[in-house]
């Protein structure tokens, strides 16, 4: 019922920047959290950054000071600005959103985007 569309992945040289965006759409919902996870080959998916509906943010330690997450409540969009990228940031990045549907029982939902590849060369 809630779909996520991602954009902004690509190939960048070490030290460069990328900006990922994710937009949520559906038939009526309220978002509690939106964020980004990543998964590198042979590794488990890990949290990168998340932002709540009251503006609280959390970051994975390795990206603190380099990545910034922000949101646009009207557009239901979350953006991850990634600066000073390093090869260790190479992974598939997945957008995540959770919240409550605007239906009779106000059901919780959780959605994932299809993933966008970020590759950082040395």
The rounded distance between the terminal residues' Cα atoms is: 40 Å
Computed CA radius of gyration, to the nearest angstrom: 14 Å
SSE order? EEEEEEEEEEE
Kindly estimate the percentage of residues that lie in beta strands according to DSSP: over 45%
Low-confidence regions: none
Percent of residues in helices comes to under 10%
Number of helices: 0
Main sheet characteristics: 7 strands, mixed
Helices and strands: which structural class?
mainly beta
Multimerization status: single chain
The gross shape turns out to be elongated
Let me know the number of strands.
Answer: 11
Round the mean pLDDT to the nearest integer and report it.
95
What does this structure look like?
- By secondary structure, the chain is mainly β.
- Helix content is 0%, strand content 61%.
- The protein is built from no helices and eleven strands.
- Strands 2, 4, 5, 6, 9, 10 and 11 form a seven-stranded mixed β-sheet that branches. Strands 1-3-8-7 form a four-stranded antiparallel β-sheet, with no helix packed on it.
- Strand 9 (91-101) and strand 10 form a beta hairpin.
- The model has no long low-confidence stretch (mean pLDDT 95).
Structure characteristics:
seven-stranded mixed β-sheet; elongated; mainly beta
């Amino acid at each position: 019922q809630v779909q996520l569309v991602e954009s902004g992945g690509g190939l960048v040289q070490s030290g460069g920047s990328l900006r990922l965006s994710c937009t949520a759409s559906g038939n009526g919902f309220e978002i509690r959290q939106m964020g980004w996870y990543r998964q590198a080959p042979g590794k488990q998916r890990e949290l990168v950054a998340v932002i709540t509906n009251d503006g609280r943010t959390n970051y994975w330690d390795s990206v603190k000071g380099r990545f910034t997450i922000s949101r646009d409540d009207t557009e239901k969009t979350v953006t991850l600005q990634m600066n000073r990228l390093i090869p260790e940031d190479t992974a598939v990045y997945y957008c995540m959103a959770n919240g409550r549907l605007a239906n009779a029982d106000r059901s919780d939902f959780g959605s994932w985007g299809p993933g966008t590849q970020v590759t950082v060369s040395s």
